[in-house]
Amino acid sequence: MNSQREGFETHDRLRWWERNKDKVITDTIMTGLLKFFVIYLINAFVNDWDIRFD
Description:
Shape: rod-shaped
Strand content: under 5%
């Protein structure tokens, strides 16, 4: 009984993935770019700050 339930859950997950694949991939890429951009901005700000006080 339990293994049958797990089979259904896996099937539902696969169907969810098929429906939302593009959105998930896009969100992942956008989040990665946003993180990179924020780190880049902080880095640029900190470096600029150091240069100003040299």
